[in-house]
Amino acid sequence: MKPEQRLILSLTLTLGILLLWTTLFSPPTRAPVSSEPEVAKSSAGVSVRATALAPKSPLEPIQEIPLDPFRFGLGSSKGGIQNLWVDGASLLDGAQPGLLQIEQIKPASLQVEMDSQSEGGKLITQTATKSAMAHISRTISRSKEAGPFSLDCEVRLTNAGLQPQEYQLRVALFKPFPQHNPRDIQYNHGFAWINGKNQRLDVKPGQTKTFSGSPSWVTTQGKSHAIIIQPATPMGMFHVEHLTGNTATGWLDLPPVTLASGAQTSWQFRIYAGPMILSHLKEAGMEDAINLGFFSGITKMILGILVWVASWSHSYGFAIIFVSVSIWLLFFPITWSGIRMMKAMGAIQPQMKRIQEEHKKNPQKMNQEVMELYRKHKVNPVAGCLPLFLQTPIFLSLYQALTRSPELRGAHFLFIRDLSGPDAIIQFPQPLPLVGSSLNVLPIVMALAMFLQQRITASFQGQSAMTDEQKAQQQMFKFMPLMFGFLFYGLPSGLVLYWVTNTLLTLVQYLIFMRMERS
Q1: CA 360 from chain center: how many Å?
Q2: Is the pLDDT of residue 154 over 70?
Q3: How many helices (H) and strands (E) does the chain have?
Q4: What secondary structure, in 3-state letters, does 169-223 show?
């Protein structure tokens, strides 16, 4: 098999495995709680220790308080946010301990009894008993300058005793999203930016992971929504513990403070809780706190371009075509060079065939002669695959943008009703084998365009000069469009629209080259 064919095959298989895994499979569910604690581990800046599993906390009565567009379900005695709805979307469901729950470490480790109420557009939670040695309050209010899904939170501590006292509190900054859809488990993660690194907050049952450093922000992230909590200034120590057997909790241990009688201190937090819409995240100054996959930076850049084009074209379908044309123009010189190189490869096929026949019993000598032939004619056998290789990060980033961005959900274009799903031009009453429950036209158009492009590419290779092995390989590659059509059949139509546009433009580029060759 020739080097360029091996590269195309490897890229295709890699892309196919990635897409099939993301589309058809989800990671296994969380392991059941074992009666044996996990073995302790350690890494740079992070320590993981095994801890004894505690029984699940009894359900705490919920007190629901609206704060448009939010609806909070607060624990009636501990004050943690156990349920949270944002514009009808459930971000927390029965979280225990609740998010932003406050516990006292010093002078005595205990859970603080809290009362909550809505007052003047603010959600105020404070210690229930006035005779306590410390008065603790938490005030949550809408942020006036940071967008519709932003909140401000203040935790205030007052020494209610008669003597100076050292205090230390801890606040729950991380709770994972509920697993409403098993297919979305792969998107649910927690991150914390600590010491200039994005740290994963995944912790197995029975473990506690302690980080050496203070978090700049803590993110709970799902497929299309996120909760981001940012301390006004990095402070304290952060650790994640998984003691209850079902969900983890990330605690920020605030720095110890000594207060005189009647003195007080406070800590401020900024919160974003809502859809991962870039414009809202930028308004809140928290766009860097979300992670959109391995090529997160490219995904955010592409998503920003799509939103910008759609803002003046009023069409996300046109925006996808715009991105495809722009990328095609960007890679035009490389693709053109690849086409010329492919033509040059076809021209030296007779000489390659002669070398292969002369040295078929000496593969090492044959490879040396072939490489010398490449150098003599200045031919790079993988140049034609370079555009495909360079576009792979863009393609995967566009997939992330289309499947996870709330902006593109429900966006229509021509006959496509939703660019974030298959085009489904015809719905079948019963699912059909291989086809599924709908007829998707764009993947079929894409496969036909790729087949036509392949026929033109094959004409460059010089069929008469091919060996029998190469001709057999050429026949095998004829199934590539069919395989791509199968892989793309259930993918978002916006992604297929990008690939169809790019394939058709590349096909035009081939036809222009052929016309110039004839003239």
Answers
A1: 49
A2: yes
A3: 12, 24
A4: EEEEEECCCCCCCHHHHHHCEEEEEECCEEEECCCCCCEEEEECCCEEEEEEECC
Give the percent of the chain with pLDDT over 90: 5
Return the pLDDT at 474.
Answer: 63
| pLDDT (0 to 100) of residue 475 | 66
Closest CA to 99 of 123, 133, 72: 72
Each residue of 343-382: pLDDT tens digit? 766 666 777 777 777 776 777 777 777 777 777 777 666 6
Residue 210 to residue 85: CA distance in whole angstroms = 30
DSSP classification of residue 275 = E
Q: Which of 260, 272, 208 is nearest to 237 (CA)?
A: 208
CA atoms of 9 and 16, how far apart (whole Å): 10
DSSP 73-110: EEETTT--EEEEEETTEEEESS-SSPBT-EEEEESS-E
**Cα 469 → chain centroid:** 42
| AA letter at 10 | S
DSSP 489: T
Amino acid at 389: F
**What is the residue-wise DSSP string for 114-132?**
EEEEEETTEEEEEES-TTS
The C-alpha atoms of residue 215 and residue 235 are separated, in whole angstroms, by 7
Task: Provide the sign of the torsion angle of the four alpha carbons 461, 462, 465, 468, taken in this order.
Answer: positive
For residues 423 and 416, what is the distance between their CA atoms, to the nearest angstrom?
A: 5
The dihedral built from the CA positions of residue 504, 506, 511 and 515, taken in this order, carries a sign that is positive
Determine the 3-state secondary structure of 362 from DSSP. Answer: coil
Residue type, 31: A
Considering Cα of 284, then 289, then 294, then 297, what sign does the dihedral take? positive
Q: Which DSSP string corresponds to 335-401? A: HHHHHHHHHHHHHTHHHHHHHHHHTTT-HHHHHHHHHHHHHHHT--TTGGGHHHHHHHHHHHHHHHH
Query: What global pTM score does this model have?
Result: 0.76
Q: Which domains does the chain have, with CATH numbers?
A: 39-291 (2.70.98.90), 300-518 (no CATH)
DSSP one-letter code for 69: T
Give just the sign of the alpha carbon dihedral 68, 72, 76, 80: negative
